[in-house]
Amino acid sequence: MARTVGSNGARTAEAIRQAGVKLIYRHGYEAMSLRQLAAEVGLQSGSLYKYFDNKQSLLFDIVRDHMEDLQARVDEALAGCTTPTERLRAYVGFHLRYHMTRMAHVFIANMEIRSLEEAHRAEVVAMRRRYEGLLEEILRAGVAEGVFKVTEPRVSTYAIISMLTGICMWYRPEGRLSQDELVIIYTDLVTGGVAAGVLPTAAAPRQLKRA
Amino acid sequence: MARTVGSNGARTAEAIRQAGVKLIYRHGYEAMSLRQLAAEVGLQSGSLYKYFDNKQSLLFDIVRDHMEDLQARVDEALAGCTTPTERLRAYVGFHLRYHMTRMAHVFIANMEIRSLEEAHRAEVVAMRRRYEGLLEEILRAGVAEGVFKVTEPRVSTYAIISMLTGICMWYRPEGRLSQDELVIIYTDLVTGGVAAGVLPTAAAPRQLKRA
DNA sequence: TCAAAAAAAGAACGTTCGATTGTTTCTGCA
DNA sequence: TGCAGAAACAATCGAACGTTCTTTTTTTGA
To answer: Which Pfam families does this UniProt record tie to the protein (chains A, B) (predicted)?
Structure first.
């Protein structure tokens, strides 16, 4: 046997990509063997090398494409929004829905950064910084307008992103709550946390100072 | 050469444990080879088996011990606190400080659960559930007393835990902000997010309903 | 003092890994 | 219809993996 009847390069490439996402999500990049991947697609392991240079570049392609998609879509989602409050709600809603819909890709992009070799990792980290920078700018704009109270926009950005991204650690589509309901719950948490002038700070008596 | 001069079992066991945490933290469990670990400690790889049954049980020991330590300390931290607000602040502060101080252990316990074989994973997940359950109970108590407004304590628990735990993705001891300052920032975010009756919900017009 | 116990070396095992190569079969276009 | 190129197989490589076993050296305690 050699070339399989009905085989098609483009279709196989897509199948490999999808199986790669699935197996890396399930087992982790290191733990996924190329023989396992080949079997999932219905190939011999050697045949995979028609479709990528090596295992590392498969991972990088998956992560890079995901990050590009994420950035393109968040730009769309924020397009119509102007006020910081609007933009914050749009960002939070988008982030949550995207992460609930594409859990595997997101999980890989977050967990397997360590498995990327240095040059690739640097590229991905830069893309992530850009995506997260959007939120930081929204917070800063809100502070400037006086609608948010955030002493450290950078830290709050990290905190909020972590909170939102964490949803793909437990969300299941068949779960009790719908995506809409979850978006509302999380949005309330976030907007409440950054809202201006509603609560005394935890630092009420003492002053924020350097260590 | 065989037994090394000055060698001591207890000391070696501790060195292996520490090196294991360090290497798993840095490279991941799958990516860490036992030869690498042995070299770090100054042994031959075969000699490691005096100290554990296999690679898997090394990971499990590290994670289990960490979870037990975490639970014991949070119980201490909450000991004197009675009101939901007090207990929430104590929980948040404890969680952050613990995670900033023992980043490697925490990271391993969160990231390498997938590398645990089924029985071990189940045990660890149960321990985590118990730890997180503490926060959920605090939120429910606050709702019952009317000091918190949380429609879904379970979801909010996940959200808050994710936010807090995320700190060990970027915190560096030599960073600009002290642990105390960070605790204040995060505590404000959390308490603001769950505070009762200060903000209209994102669901203001429509009603929360099942999907 | 000397034998038992402890600690580690070191060699080897079978397996699996990512990757390479040469060959065979199928497809699509001129 | 025939052939160039695409697609996949099959066999294999060397390296690295976790693990086991035997041997050697050091320490310890009666």
So the answer is: TetR_C_24, TetR_N
